[in-house]
């Protein structure tokens, strides 16, 4: 059996390595258009910022290493121009020798990855200081440019993963960074109220933001010197990083019967098989599906690519591995802030047919008496079944630990109440007695059953529409005087049992404290003495302040 793989970054080399582990007799050949293989795309910003000393650290293996370890050939500098599945041949162009040839295969794997977008008016050919951060060649070119030119002002277009990472690294390197984002918020992958914390951190670090805006024109000869936006801002720049997203590199499917999916990536089944027999697709070029909804999604990420490659290599050589889908889990560091997310947001849950209940949980990552800092957790569950659907977290520590626990829980279809049953590690330097994960499950289940919550957005909407509510601030009078929700009445928790007699039990009532713990006690008290509808303000006054600032 002859296996031919096109592409050798994350997915392609995983295919070949797994196939060889399963089968010593197979002939395995890999073609790569570039010169570097199996490199870390995700590590590129950290080299450019100086956190990684050498670019070679991001290229741990070369073709010779794979030949010695697994006995298969990787041909770099070989561009595959076309594929012909009907006759099981591909057309290859050897860039070093300047000549082409045909190669046969029994099994073909497309691991051609994705390509970066360059929207108008940007042109990498016309301006020497506009770059993508997609390949190792891009990284080396940016590094060389910064060393050879006086680079003080950088413009980053787009605020996804690469955009934020490049912003962090170049700011830490001492450059003045401006971010231009077409959406109305930074990092559009998460909800606006959570993205606000990213925006605040960027501003605190001196990063200039242009939201709901785009670059319209470029001034400069050979180099982009001034970018003018739709809103009329003139941005002086020495370097431009384009980070507006990627698209699957499906060029080789042209004039074939290989089907593309709803997302524009190649449609595959659970074994990475395409619609054409003996042709597979893996990594950024392949479509995946969401583990909760079962619907197609495009999730280009190195970890997913590696997993897909291993599955394809296993299936080709008689194995039983299959792809179980993705939750779209992601994480990014921004200075001393970490942002993580997994599963469905409130809007996505609603679109998928669930009746979502949403809570905000603000808890320290570990005991405050040993320096624990707050995590802000926004979590979603299905009101009817209690199924835990998703979470987003912002904090300075412990985000990765909790988001991975949440992702595991969603993977095994846990209910919100089952988060409470988890036996998580506890000691004051690492957690709290009720870990933020456990507390999230408690609050979600309470909100789903008999102790509802109301988000700041919902409360403000109801107040603005003139709906009759009574809002009770159960904090101390000193805290109330410092700031409070509009039209809130201050009845400190110790006085609530007596003070409740002055309230209208028939009116919808919202109670709040600083972060939600004391208000839950107040909610129980009021319900127990006959109040009809009592809500806890989700995340308390702390979360309300964040929302108002946003």
TrEMBL record:
Residues 465-549 form the Rhodanese domain. InterPro entries: FAD-bd_OxRdtase, FAD/NAD-bd_sf, FAD/NAD-binding_dom, FAD/NAD-linked_Rdtase_dimer_sf, Pyr_nucl-diS_OxRdtase_dimer, Rhodanese-like_dom, Rhodanese-like_dom_sf. Keywords: FAD, Flavoprotein, Oxidation, Oxidoreductase, Redox-active center. Its cofactor is FAD. Belongs to the class-III pyridine nucleotide-disulfide oxidoreductase family. This is FAD-dependent oxidoreductase. It comes from Alkalibacterium indicireducens.
């Amino acid at each position: 059996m002859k296996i031919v793989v096109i592409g050798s970054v994350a997915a392609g080399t995983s295919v070949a390595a797994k196939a060889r582990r399963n089968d010593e007799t197979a002939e395995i050949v890999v073609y790569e258009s570039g010169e570097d293989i199996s490199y870390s795309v995700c590590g590129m910003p950290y080299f450019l910022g100086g956190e990684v000393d050498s670019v070679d650290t991001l290229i741990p293996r070369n073709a010779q290493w794979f030949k010695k370890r697994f006995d298969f050939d990787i041909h770099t500098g070989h561009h595959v121009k076309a594929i012909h599945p009907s006759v099981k041949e591909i057309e290859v162009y050897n860039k070093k020798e300047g000549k082409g040839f045909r190669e046969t295969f029994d099994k073909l794997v497309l691991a051609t990855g994705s390509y970066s977008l360059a929207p108008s008016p940007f042109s990498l050919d016309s301006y020497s200081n506009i770059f993508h951060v997609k390949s190792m060649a891009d990284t080396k070119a940016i590094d060389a440019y910064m060393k050879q030119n006086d680079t003080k002002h950088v413009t980053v277009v787009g605020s996804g993963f690469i955009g934020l990472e490049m912003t962090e690294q170049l700011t830490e390197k001492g450059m003045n960074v401006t971010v231009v984002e077409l959406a109305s918020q930074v990092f559009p992958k998460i909800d606006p109220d959570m993205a606000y914390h990213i925006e605040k951190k960027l501003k605190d670090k001196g990063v200039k933001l242009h939201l709901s805006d785009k670059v319209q024109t470029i001034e400069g000869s050979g180099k982009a010197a001034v970018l003018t936006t739709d809103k009329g801002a003139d941005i002086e720049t020495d370097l431009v990083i384009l980070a507006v997203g990627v698209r699957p590199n499906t060029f080789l499917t042209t004039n074939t019967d290989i089907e593309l999916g709803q997302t524009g990536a190649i449609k595959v089944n659970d074994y990475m098989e395409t619609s054409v027999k003996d042709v597979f697709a893996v990594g950024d070029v392949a479509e995946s599906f969401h583990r909760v909804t079962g619907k197609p999604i495009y999730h280009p990420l190195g970890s997913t690519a590696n997993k897909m490659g291993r599955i394809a290599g296993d299936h080709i050589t008689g194995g039983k591995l299959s792809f179980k889908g993705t939750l779209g889990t992601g994480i990014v560091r921004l200075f001393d802030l970490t942002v993580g997310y997994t599963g469905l947001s409130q809007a996505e849950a609603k679109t998928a047919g669930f009746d979502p209940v949403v809570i905000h949980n603000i808890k320290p990552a570990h005991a405050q008496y040993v320096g624990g800092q707050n995590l802000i957790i926004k979590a979603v569950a299905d009101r009817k079944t209690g199924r835990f659907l998703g979470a987003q977290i912002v904090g300075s520590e412990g985000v990765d630990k909790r988001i991975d626990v949440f992702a595991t829980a969603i993977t095994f279809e846990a209910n919100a109440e089952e988060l409470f049953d988890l036996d998580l590690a506890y000691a004051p330097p690492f957690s709290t007695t009720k870990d933020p994960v456990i507390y999230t499950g408690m609050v979600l289940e309470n909100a789903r059953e008999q102790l509802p919550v109301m988000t700041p957005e919902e409360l403000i909407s109801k107040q603005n529409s003139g709906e009759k509510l009574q809002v009770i601030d159960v904090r101390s009078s000193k805290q109330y005087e410092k700031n409070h929700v509009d039209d809130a009445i201050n009845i400190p928790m110790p006085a609530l049992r007596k003070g409740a007699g002055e309230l209208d039990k028939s009116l919808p009532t919202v109670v709040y404290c600083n972060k939600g713990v004391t208000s839950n006690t107040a909610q129980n008290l009021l319900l127990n003495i006959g109040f009809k509808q009592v809500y806890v303000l989700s995340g308390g006054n702390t979360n309300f302040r964040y929302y108002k600032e946003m």
